[in-house]
Structures are given as C-alpha cells and as structure tokens.
From TrEMBL:
<dbReference type="InterPro" id="IPR029052">
    <property type="entry name" value="Metallo-depent_PP-like"/>
</dbReference>
<protein>
    <recommendedName>
        <fullName>Calcineurin-like phosphoesterase domain-containing protein</fullName>
    </recommendedName>
</protein>
Amino acid sequence: MKQLKDTHPDHVVALNGNHEKSFAAAEMEELVEWVCNLPLIYEDDQFIFTHFGLNLYENMHFQQAAFVLFL
C-alpha cells in the first residue's frame, strides 16, 4: 500500500486504521511512521471514507480517533 501511495500520491488514498498499531517492531519503524501520519478521514466530492465510521453527532473535523478507528 505504501509503495502504491508513494507512486500515485494524487490517485491513492490510504487511511489510518486500528491494525497499524501492531506494526511496532523496530525494523518496521519507517512503515509505522508512515502509517501513523495517514489521515483518519478522507472526503471527496461524493463520499466520506473512514476505517470504521463517524459519530453523526460530532462535526466531521472534530471526530475522536477511537470512534473513527474502532467503534
């Protein structure tokens, strides 16, 4: 996924999810840093993308990471 995103940054959207925290091995430090800097939410002209969902009672730009990732 990282290679695809690096090759086509304007056409590939990668979102941070809840599985990435398990990549904590020292040899994966660069990958962990890349994943941790991914957005939690992506919006285009038609859709909003998240790993899990949105709290409909909160402004999209102030969502809690725990809700977007897990709930």
